[in-house]
Specification:
There is one protein chain. This protein has 170 residues and is α/β, with parallel strands linked by helices. It has a single domain (4-156), classed as Murein tetrapeptidase LD-carboxypeptidase, N-terminal domain (Rossmann fold). The protein is built from 8 helices and 5 strands, in the order E-H-E-H-H-E-H-H-E-H-E-H-H. Strands 2-1-3-4-5 form a 5-stranded parallel sheet, sandwiched between helices. The chain is globular.
């Protein structure tokens, strides 16, 4: 079902930092192994300071990802602490409402604010994995529990039933 996946940095620019480059490389390779085309949105990898100081560009990336009919899924890079700063750029002139297309939106942590925004506009979203924390897992593969639900989501566009993990990682 999912063929093209857009990566957005709505809260933090961590994936644009040199110290995260090896993880980003793992994540992109892993997504490509699933047969996915990865589209890094224009400002997603501009780094922590740039992303922090330019909520208007983060909003542009989200609007562009929703507007692009070729994109099937929007995956948040990582959480953070200030995605609320996108609000004026998404709602002042109903920008998000106008751009909204039904597609998969996936992320967690600070992305909860984005989930609420999208819910208010009638879109069902998935609170779950992020690119950096889950897809870019530095082991040889993603954690099995994570992979199971991610694979179901990209294959079917939904998750039928969520079961708790029988393993706890620290």
């Amino acid at each position: 079902m999912v063929k093209n996946i857009a990566i957005v940095s709505l809260s933090s620019g961590t994936i644009g930092e040199a110290f995260a480059a090896h993880e980003v490389e793992i994540g992109i390779r892993r997504l490509k192994e699933y047969g996915l085309n990865v589209i890094m949105m224009p400002h997603a990898q501009k780094g922590i300071e740039y992303v922090k100081n330019h909520p208007e560009d983060r909003a542009k990336d989200l609007l562009q990802a929703f507007s692009d009919d070729s994109i099937d899924m929007i995956l948040c890079a990582i959480g953070g602490d200030d995605t609320y700063r996108l609000l004026p750029y998404l709602f002042e002139h109903k920008e998000l409402q106008k751009a909204l297309n039904k597609k998969i939106f996936l992320g967690f942590s600070d992305t909860t604010v984005n989930h609420l925004m999208l819910h208010k506009l009638g879109l069902n979203t998935f609170y779950g994995q992020s690119f950096l924390a889950d897809i870019c897992e530095m082991d040889h593969e993603m954690l099995p529990y994570t992979a199971t639900y991610f694979e179901e989501l990209i294959r079917t566009g939904k998750i039928a039933k969520i079961e708790p993990s029988d393993v706890w990682y620290e």
